[in-house]
Amino acid sequence: MSERTSDEPGQNRRGMRAFTPDFLTELFHNPLDPGYADAAAQRAKTGRPARSGWSVGPVGLVVIVLLGFLFAVAYRQTVAEEPGRAQARSGLVAQIKQRQNETDALSTRAEQLREEVNRQRETALGGSRAARLRELEASTGLGRVRGDGVVVELADGPGGQDSLSGANVGPAQVIYLDLQSVTNDLWAAGAEAIAINGQRLTSTSTIRSAGQAILVDFRPVTGPYEVAAIGPGGMRKRYETSYSALTMRKVAKANGLSFAVRDADDLTLPAAPEPRLRYAEPSVSPSASPSGGDESSGSGTSPSPSGGGR
């Protein structure tokens, strides 16, 4: 009988893996790759411990130190410049508040002077003419008015999350088109005088936007917005069925805007500022030529500037 050599299949050669027809059997019998076994044997022979983690060479160490130094310098500069920025910001805020106080004081002074002018004018005109003038001023928005009416309140909604992405989004905001629609429908419902946050509307008033700000006659107004209107008793009922009221209620239900309509007694709406009117002027007609005669009359005299014959 011949002796079986170690080169037959199924037997392990020295330093090599034996392969069997059954892959699962081979995997369980020899789970470690020969390369790992050789590396472990080499470490045991040389006495070197296995490396754990990662090592940093000289170049990497220099790069890390340099980055740390740059971060430290940037942080120090940021901290050093923060007091200056805070001081500049506080200075701007103080200037804005000062200008607002000055504007309020001038507005109060202008209102006092206007009342004084009205008193002097009524004294000079007399009873009937002064009453007629007050009626015209009230209808045009140039006079203060009092009476019962309706107040429409609008305010921005709270912030929330996008229904699709789930990201945080800003609050639903009232835009200038909403105020335009509300005021137009209030006029249509019979309003005789309207003011938005104390800004009286006239026939030349504008409601526009400048970025995120809403301007009423080029004056900024901020939320919450209060549209006050003086008018007849059935004005609220007519406004409740208007397009803007129905639309704003749907928007408030869907986006969280605040929209409310209420009756108000004894409203006082201020007068609008005096408008700056521009008048058209006729152009200067050229003077008649002195050498021309009157062809229709046949006389040789030229007409004078007053229309006479001499």
UniProtKB/TrEMBL annotation:
Keywords: Coiled coil, Membrane, Transmembrane, Transmembrane helix
Transmembrane segments: 53-75
Annotated region (Disordered), positions in chain: 272-310
Pfam families to which the protein is assigned, alphabetical: DUF881
Transmembrane helix keyword on record: yes
Superkingdom assignment: Bacteria
Coiled coil start-end: 96-123
Family matches, as Gene3D superfamilies: Protein of unknown function DUF881 (3.30.70.1880)
Amino acid composition bias (Low complexity), ranges on this chain: 282-310
Family: Belongs to the UPF0749 family.
Protein name from the UniProt record: Membrane protein
Protein species of origin: Micromonospora lutea
